Amino acid sequence: MPEIQSEDLRPRGAGVRAMACDTEGNIIDDFLIFEDGNVINVCNAPSPAATASLAIGETIAQKVLQRLNEK
Predict the structure, then answer these.
(1) For residue 51, what are the CA distances in angstroms to 28, 47, 54?
(2) How far is Cα 63 from Cα 40, in angstroms, rounded to an integer?
(3) Cα 68 vs. chain centroid, distance in angstroms?
(4) Is 36 helix (H, G, I), strand (E, B) or coil?
(5) Selection from 64, 29, 21, 35 nearest residue 49 by Cα
């Protein structure tokens, strides 16, 4: 982008984001939602989690409805 000049740029610190890892230390890049007893856990919601929040909510709602229908 030739319009951007060096005086337009300012150094900043890098952001830090927590990353979920599996038991072997591998980074989990995708959503991790699992059930444990009566709890539905969202253990990993990587970016763009805010964009996907409605889909995450729908997934959780489907899991709850499935449990209710099993009873």
Answers:
(1) 19, 8, 8
(2) 8
(3) 26
(4) strand
(5) 29
Beta strands in the chain (DSSP E): 32-36, 39-44
> Which pair of structure tokens corresponds to residue 69?
């229908």
CA distance 43 to 45: 7
Radius of gyration of the chain (CA): 19
| Predicted confidence pLDDT, tens digits, the chain (71 residues) | 789 998 898 888 777 777 888 899 999 888 888 898 889 998 888 777 678 889 889 999 999 999 899 87
Q: Which helix (H) or strand (E) holds 54?
A: helix 53-70
